[in-house]
Amino acid sequence: MLQIEHLKIAFPNPKGHFEAVKDFSLHVEEGQVIGIVGESGSGKSMTAHAIMGLLDRKSVQVSGSIRFEGVELLDLTRSQMRSYQGKDLSIIFQEPMTSLNPTMKIGPQVEEALRIHTKMPPKERKQRALEAMALAGLPNGEQLYHQYPHQLSGGMRQRVMIAAALVLRPKLLIADEPTTALDVTIQAQILDTLKEINRKEGIAILFISHDLGVIRALCHHVVVMQQGEIVEAGDVEQVFHHPQQAYTQRLIASRPTRTKLKAGGSHG
């Protein structure tokens, strides 16, 4: 479904250029849940933005190949790429308050992709939005539909972002650190919701995090990034229990104790 081959992302600077991502390759098949883990600055979010066509190609050098269902995304114009954004490819970000419009009610924000990509009448749009909200684990959708972002908790706002990303049932959902700002209990609930979405809808998920324990709780396969490069990849349990690289070992050791206990308990 998604094939990334030899992706490089570079930013020009006075000394030439800085390579944020170096020779990144990854294949994501239908229904897979794959994690990309690494510290801040490892290039993981930059890779996600490249897939979604969110990088400014005038100021960023992007080379290699990103193919989605056989279409080379790097060859598309901005307007052509918009036909994929929110429809076949969706993304949720770390802090929903920077993505949600504080002056707009929740309902219309969840419906946004429907307004952009379909000619669905308002009544049907609302029904689809309520269905997406239910799928994202939001109770009392009818009531929430008319509320504003500031009236919701951080966890509920993140679920609103998930609902908005799911409203057109994309084939690939990219989750860029979506649980980082949440406490460990809400984090676990959001991960359970994403698991259920994958199981029920068959939507592939590319989950990005700095926490290997979070990746382990959700993903089948993991890619470990350091300074723009893949340093380790494989089955998540194999990498977690038998890390080959010192960097991966440090990521495991640096996780908070309660996350270690929770991840360890969930896998016996």
Account of the 3D structure:
It is a single chain. The protein has about 270 residues and is of the alpha/beta class. The chain has one domain: P-loop containing nucleotide triphosphate hydrolases (Rossmann fold, 3-Layer(aba) Sandwich). Helix content is about 40%, strand content about 25%. Strands 6-7-8-3-9-10 form a six-stranded mixed β-sheet, with helices on both faces. The protein has a four-stranded antiparallel β-sheet with strand order 2-1-4-5. The radius of gyration is 19 Å and the shape is globular. The C terminus is likely disordered.
Oligomer: single chain
How many E-type strands?
10
Radius of gyration: 19 Å
Task: Name the average pLDDT.
Answer: 90
Helix content: 40-55%
- Give me the number of helical elements: 13
Shape: globular
Assigned CATH superfamily: P-loop containing nucleotide triphosphate hydrolases
The CATH topology turns out to be Rossmann fold
User: What low-confidence regions span 5 or more consecutive residues with pLDDT below 50?
Assistant: 257-268
Strand-residue fraction?
25-35%
- Largest sheet properties: 6 strands, mixed
How are the strands of the biggest sheet laid out side by side? Answer: 6-7-8-3-9-10
CATH architecture: 3-Layer(aba) Sandwich
Give the topology string: H per helix, E per strand: EEEHEEHEHHHHHHEHEHEEHHH
| N→C terminal distance | 33 Å
CATH class bucket? Alpha Beta
Task: Write a brief caption for the model.
The protein is α/β, with parallel strands linked by helices and 268 residues long.
